[in-house]
């Protein structure tokens, strides 16, 4: 029996009306079963919940949307932040303060009214804070850097239940670690982030027939390398199901999807797109001038909950042989059941050392490679193996590292550790031992306290 606490919102135990809805993640493949769910309305609710968890040695899980749910919370206490939706914008200083329950779409909608943009991700329904704690690679990253590079401060409830202001001056080590270390160091209740004067873009999707995928992949790396930093273009092998909300030209077939966000003029963007347009004629072309509030239409990701499996890796170089290997593993001649096999470009400002260093240190790759498949009953037995086969086929060109936000279902300790260089992982793990000695925060992408202490330290 778990004790109750005074919180301004909701606390529910299994069997209570609303319990299942409170804890349900976007990724329906994961079924949380906490002993207590707290629907926090403010930072002091979060602090009360963490204090209770600490006094009763209950593991803590934090969830805003469940987009990043990778491991079931079993027993313990789940803190749902989705009611924490405060947003304040200082247009003059180009800063915003975002509470832990906000999704990117809600933030972008408000900043766009002021001609400003955050360094949001591709999906409007992903939570801003979960994304920020994992680095945050988005359509503006080549131009301005990873989202963590432009976080000014966090309000953080640490595993001892204390609410701390964490910034470069007050808590430099925690500030470094939370930017990339996910929920391993506590619950972020709010973040202060920079905004950028971006009001519009030229972008959308070019959807190519499957037969063109090998030639597009063969051209893609060289083409991206020539693009200015203000241009972003991901390339996905997309197999969407035939459903009423899926465009009739796209459902039930494989297509190559070039996902474009260009901050230059329409004329310059079209000049830059010409080499890819020259490879094949798109089946569907949604590229156009748009306001920044339409940025989520570039990737056009699903906004309804689905059970899914996913993993990510970093690609050193997409050589012609690598492009061929990817085509063979997931392209038109494969029987891949995966919905998305996607390359997203790094480079530009992502690759440069940021002014405020963070724990995100896998920056020197050319692309992320993300593989994602549905866990519907008809394919759930084959999807993970198919995804692993794509990664195995690409192994000669992978760096061995990953970005933690794209680690998806990879939660084994060595897979989690691959998101950082060994030095960074050892530093995170040492700090984890200091900040969370009883290892209360141990669901999701878990850093074990003191896991990578050197032999020297053990002696
Ligand atoms: C459709 C889709 C598109 C995506 N696009 C991008 C993208 O463009 N770029 C990118 O970098 N990533 C992207 N991701 C990955 C995404 O950023 C991560 O899955 C992120 O963790 C989701 O955060 P969430 O709050 O929505 O999910 P949740 O499942 O609620 O949270 C996931 C994890 O984030 C951490 N977290 C959440 N809230 C807090 C908090 N208050 N304090 C501390 N830690 C917290 C925890 O570790 C938690 O387990 C995408 C994911 C999906 C499903």
TrEMBL record:
InterPro entries: FAD-bd_PCMH, FAD-bd_PCMH-like_sf, FAD-bd_PCMH_sub1, FAD-bd_PCMH_sub2, FAD-linked_Oxidoreductase, Oxid_FAD_bind_N, Oxy_OxRdtase_FAD_BS. Belongs to the oxygen-dependent FAD-linked oxidoreductase family. Residues 30-198 form the FAD-binding PCMH-type domain. This is FAD linked oxidase domain protein. Keywords: FAD, Flavoprotein, Oxidoreductase. GO terms for molecular function: FAD binding; oxidoreductase activity. It comes from the Bacteria. The keyword Flavoprotein applies. Transmembrane segments: none annotated. Its cofactor is FAD.
């Amino acid at each position: 029996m778990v004790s109750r606490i005074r919180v301004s919102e909701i606390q529910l135990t299994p069997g209570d009306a609303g319990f299942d809805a409170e804890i349900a993640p976007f990724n329906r493949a994961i079924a949380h079963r906490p002993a207590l769910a707290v629907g926090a309305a403010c930072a002091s609710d979060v602090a009360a919940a963490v204090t209770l968890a600490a006094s009763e040695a209950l593991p803590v899980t934090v969830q805003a949307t469940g987009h990043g749910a990778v491991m079931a919370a079993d027993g313990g206490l789940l803190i749902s932040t989705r009611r924490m939706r405060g947003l304040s914008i200082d247009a003059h200083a180009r800063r915003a303060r975002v509470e832990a329950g906000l999704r990117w779409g809600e933030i972008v909608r408000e900043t766009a009214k002021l001609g400003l943009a955050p360094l949001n991700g591709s999906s409007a329904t992903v939570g801003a804070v979960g994304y920020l704690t994992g680095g945050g690679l988005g359509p503006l990253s080549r131009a301005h850097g990873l989202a963590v590079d432009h976080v000014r401060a966090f309000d953080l409830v640490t595993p001892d239940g204390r609410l701390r202001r964490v910034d470069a001056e007050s808590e430099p080590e925690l500030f470094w670690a939370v930017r990339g270390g996910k929920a391993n160091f506590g619950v972020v209740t709010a973040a202060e982030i920079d905004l950028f004067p971006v009001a519009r873009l030229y972008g959308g999707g070019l959807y190519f027939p499957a037969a063109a995928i090998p030639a597009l992949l063969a051209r893609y790396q060289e083409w991206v390398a020539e693009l200015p930093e203000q241009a972003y273009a991901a390339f996905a092998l997309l197999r969407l199901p035939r459903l009423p909300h899926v465009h009739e030209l796209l459902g039930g077939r494989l297509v190559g999807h070039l996902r474009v966000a260009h901050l230059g003029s329409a004329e310059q963007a079209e000049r830059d797109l010409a080499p890819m347009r020259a490879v094949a004629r798109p089946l569907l072309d949604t590229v156009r001038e748009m306001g920044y509030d339409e940025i989520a239409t570039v990737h056009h990701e699903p906004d309804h909950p689905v059970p899914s499996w996913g993993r990510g890796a970093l690609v050193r170089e997409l050589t012609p042989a690598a492009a061929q290997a990817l085509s063979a593993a997931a392209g038109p001649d494969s029987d891949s059941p995966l919905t998305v096999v996607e390359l997203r470009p790094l480079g530009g400002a992502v690759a440069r050392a940021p002014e405020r260093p963070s724990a995100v240190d896998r920056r020197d790759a050319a692309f992320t490679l993300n593989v994602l498949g549905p866990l519907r009953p008809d394919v759930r037995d084959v999807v993970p193996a198919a995804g692993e086969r794509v990664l195995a086929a690409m192994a000669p060109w992978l760096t061995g590292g990953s970005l933690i936000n794209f680690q998806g279902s990879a939660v084994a300790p060595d897979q989690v550790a691959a998101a950082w260089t060994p030095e960074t992982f050892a530093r995170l793990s040492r700090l984890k031992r200091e900040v969370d000695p009883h290892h209360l925060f141990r669901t999701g992408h878990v850093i074990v306290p003191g896991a990578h202490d050197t032999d020297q330290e053990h002696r």
